[in-house]
Every structure is written in C-alpha cells, then in structure tokens.
Amino acid sequence: MPWWPSGGLWRHPDFLKLWAAQSLSAMGSRITRTALPMIAILTIQASPTEIAILSALGVLPGVIVGLVAGGPIDRQAKRPLLIAADLVRAALILTIPVAAWSGDLSMPQLYVIAAAVGAASALFRIADNTYLPVLIGKDRLIDGNAKLEATDSIAESVGPGLAGMLVQLMTAPLAVIVDAVSYLWSALMLSRIRAVEAPAAAPEAKNRVFADIAIGFRACLDEPAVARLLLAETLMMLFGGFFHTLYMILALEALGLSPVVIGVVISVGSIGSFFGALMAERVALRLGLGPTLLVTLALGNAAALLIPLSVLAGPLSVPSLVAHQLIGDLFLGIFLIHAISLRQRLLPVEVLGRVNASFHVATGLALPVGALIAGPLADHIGISATMWIGAIGGCTAALAMLSRKVLTLR
Q: Which of 12, 184, 213, 405 shows its CA 20 to 30 Å from the CA of 105?
C-alpha cells in the first residue's frame, strides 16, 4: 500500500512535519465544525435561522479570500502564511470557552469567529496546495497528496464522533479547546520545517487584486487540461449544492431515518475516501492519468444516483445510501488527488497560488448557487425529483473532461 509508512516521503523529514501538522489540525477542525452549532443551540438557544447564518458565514468569507489572496501567496513564502493562519484560528477558538466561562458568549461572537476562522482556513488551504510542490518537488505530488488525503479521511471519520463525546464529557464550549491546541501543534510543526523557500516575485501585479484574479483564471484557461478540470469541478459543486441542501431532509423526512443512523451512514464515506487515497497511484499506473480522471469522476458522480434511488428501495434504502458513500467517496477521492496533483505539476509555481484561488472561488460560488436553486425547485416538484435532477446533472461533470488532451495525459 503506497500510504503505509515504509519509505518514500515517509523518509522526507520536512514532509513528515507538514503531515504531522495537518494530521492533528484536521481532527481538531472536525471537532469545531461539529461543536460550533452545538454551542449555539445548547448554550445560546439559537434559532434555526441563526444556525443557517452561522453555517453560511463559515463558507462565504473563504470565497472573498480566494479572490484576493492568490497574488500575495504567490509573491511571498508560504510557510509563514500557514503558521499565521494556524495561530489566528487558535486565538479565535480560545475566545469561546473564555466567553462561556464569563457568561458573555453570544451569537454575534460566534458569527465573527465562524467568519474569521473560515477565512483563515481558506487562506491555509490555498497556501498549502501551493506549498506542497515547493516542499517535495513535482515528481512526488501524487504520493504526497494521497498521504494527506488518507489522513484527512481518517479525521473525517473520527472527528465528528469524537466531538460528540467531548461535548458530552466537557460541554460544547470546552470541547473546542482541543481544536485550538491542534492549531498550535500545527504551527509548531510547520515552524520546524527546515527547507528554504524562495518566494516568487511578480512585481507587475503587486497590490492589484483584479490583475491577480485575471492572471489566475487566465493561467487555468491557457492550459487545456486544467481548464477542463476547472469546468468539471465547478459543475460537480453546482449540482453538489442540491445534496448539500436536501440530503438531510430526504434522510430524515422521506426515509424516516434517525440522526444516529444518518451520522453512521455519512461517516462510512471516509472509509471510501481512505481506500481511494491508498489506490490512487496504482489506478493511474494501470489506466493512465487521463482515463483515471475521466473514469473516477464519472463513477464518483454516478454513485449519487443511489440517493434518490433510496426512496424507491424500501428495505434497501439504508444500504443504498451506504453504497453511495463508499463508492462516491472512493472514486471522487482518487479523482481529487490526481486533479490537484495535475494542476500543481502542469502550472508554474509562480502562479500556482492564484490558480488554486481561482479553483477555490469557482467551486465556492457554485455550491451555494446550487443550494439556492435546489430549495425552491424542491418546493415545486418535490425533494425526490429535485435529487434526481441533481444526480443526473452531476454526471455532466465527466462530460467536461472528454477531450483528447485529457485522455492522453500520462
């Protein structure tokens, strides 16, 4: 198994520090993601509308960061940005237990924290994707991305359950201290990386936000394979917004499942993505990179057809949802590892921050647009019918990858 610690990047001291940093912080992030709405509900008695606002504020600032951060990331060393993002997130999270202890915790404070942590997390992700090829070189990107993705899938599986246990044992405001500690650990590990990074200079675009945005998108569109990836991932997130909005409603109301069963079903997806990370390099060696991208994207999105099908499956409704999680996350995990690695490999490091920001903005906008389409559509034609539209629409993402340029990638 390529992920098992037996050689390769496991003998790369600086990569190990990056991996150690992200392993614990990924777990902590899942704890806060789960605990934050619990804090609002259990401690402040927040209304459903307030919870919806809290959720939106965790996502939307990341789109703004994506618009303005790509150029600055390209023009300076990435590691200090990663450390700064960790320290900011730790400081923000620690204000929650302090305010709860003093009796001053409020929804406006949680709104500010959700927005600021979301913005810092977006900056971290964009800088991290830009830093990896600088740290390990472009010839080991698939191996590096696969290892990080496998670790992330473990965090996705364990984090929400651990959050529930911590909330029960420590109360919700105290549970997030674990996340703050994980960010401090991440900053410490990143500070120990010894590789010298030479920042790429781009004085002609300095302090020009719109020029940076244009450079990022133009770099994507000038490379045909990357342009196809951008279109495919945007379509996938657009129709993914249908499931982001309606999945819980379908599971709770149409299928009558309990929250416990739903939680177990969703956690199964991390098993699929974990094994996808293990298989990613081997699949590409067997099929070739281009066919791997096309096949895994097609199968991963086609698995979403099992969601509306579960309404018709009777006693097989839960197995249908489990199969979707396993199959979908398995193949989409493979696709995303190779998609990220491909754009890191094909595009110059000098513009990679702006390219990563372009992907972040395009997909970050597509998800809420899809969600806003799905809600009113479900009111008119029903949840099940809308989910069929979302599942079939998601399959169009694979059509965006159909080109000779993509199929001949090696």
A: 184
Output the six-digit token pair for 94.
């620690």
Q: How many CB atoms lie within 10 A of CB 298?
A: 18
Q: Which amino acid is at 143?
A: D
Nearest to 295 by CA among 378, 402, 374: 402
Are the CB atoms for 18 and 72 separated by under 8 Å? no
What does the angle CA 262 – CA 152 – CA 30 come to, to the nearest 5 degrees?
55
Q: How many C-beta atoms surround the C-beta of residue 231 within 10 A?
A: 18
| 66-118: pLDDT as tens digits | 778 878 888 888 889 999 999 999 999 999 888 888 888 888 998 999 889 98
Which residues are CB-neighbours of 396 under 8 A, at least 6 positions away?
Answer: 235, 239
Q: Is the dihedral of CA 85, 86, 90, 93 positive or negative?
A: positive
**Quick count: other Cβ atoms within 10 Å of Cβ 44?**
15
Task: Single out the residue of 178, 304, 318 nearest to residue 244, CA to CA.
Answer: 304
pLDDT digit string, tens, across residues 275-316: 888 888 899 999 999 999 999 999 999 999 999 999 998 889
Q: What gap in Å lies between CA 56 and CA 115, rounded to an integer?
A: 9
SS3 content of the chain, % helix, strand, coil (to 5): 85, 0, 15
The model's pTM is 0.74
Is the Cβ–Cβ distance between 25 and 124 less than 8 Å?
no
Structural domains for the chain:
1-201 (1.20.1250.20), 209-410 (1.20.1250.20)
Give me the phi and psi of 195, to 5 degrees please. Answer: -60, 135
Look up tokens 């066919």; give the residue: 291
